[in-house]
Amino acid sequence: MSQVAVGIDLGGTNLRAAVFGALPNSAEPILVHRESVGADRSPEAIVSRLGTLIPELLQRAELGALCIPVGIGFAGMLSGHQGHVANSPNFGWRNVALGTMLRARLGERYKVGIYNDVNAITYGEFTLGAGRGSSDILAVFVGTGIGAGAVCGNVLLQGANNTATELGHTKVVIDADALQCSCGLKGCVEAYVGGKLLQERARRDLDTWASSAAVELAGGVQNVHPGHLDAAAAEGDDYALELYSEVSPMLGLAIANAVTLLNPGCLVLGGGVFSRTPVLRDFVLAAFETAVNPPAREGLQIAMAELGDAGGLVGSALLASGY
Q1: String of DSSP letters for 21-64
Q2: Is this structure's pTM higher than 0.85?
């Protein structure tokens, strides 16, 4: 039977929402909504906005009388399976009972599920995107940070405390000079290849000692982002190529180790940075091919994510609906 559900992607920049009417057969929404997260990111403010938005969406979709599953993909580390946020650098939250607060605001009419945002995207890609048809997938997304999700034997891998597959926070450097990550620890692969921290490092380098064609492409040092670095690397820019040569093996190794451990049939790659930096992606995949265990690599399909911004909406709605 088709299922009506609401999917919400609560990210570091945007709040996206969609009402679906034909899950699990179609990712086509009945209604789509998007707004900025804005400056007030307190738990109370976010719960208040969601508590108003969700009934409004159902009313606009003329579904106001139904009891609806609501899935929320949240940009942060969760603890347990009730929507407790352990740490969210994007929101400045630590130990926030988001699920409890939102269920109290919405009432029993709604079946609310809160999921790590990349887990939700992964499940969307597994069901209706690049991973469909495979029982075991690993998805790696490089955007502001680095996230990953996995489906093993047709089941989303969440772990005992719902913190499985935090690939971005696996350690690749453990000495005293390891870079600081947004999670508060040092040496995470996200600190080196995550879009935000990679951008910040490049701007520091280019403002102090390095030179690169990326500065001219960007119209100034403070405008440089990974896309400019990639365009420069494609033209043989020394700084961009040296930077990529340093950091890409770290991510390639992390992905190779995950594939070696999980033995997926499909590796899905995506995210705002990865999808717009083909040179960086090629560097990472070259390192991956060197490091991965050959039996785990055999038969592995590598594909780019297909659902784009809709992945988290679809996945969170599917998970809340029990598919």
Answers
A1: EEETT---EEEEEEEE--S---HHHHHHHHHHHHHHHHHHTT-T
A2: yes
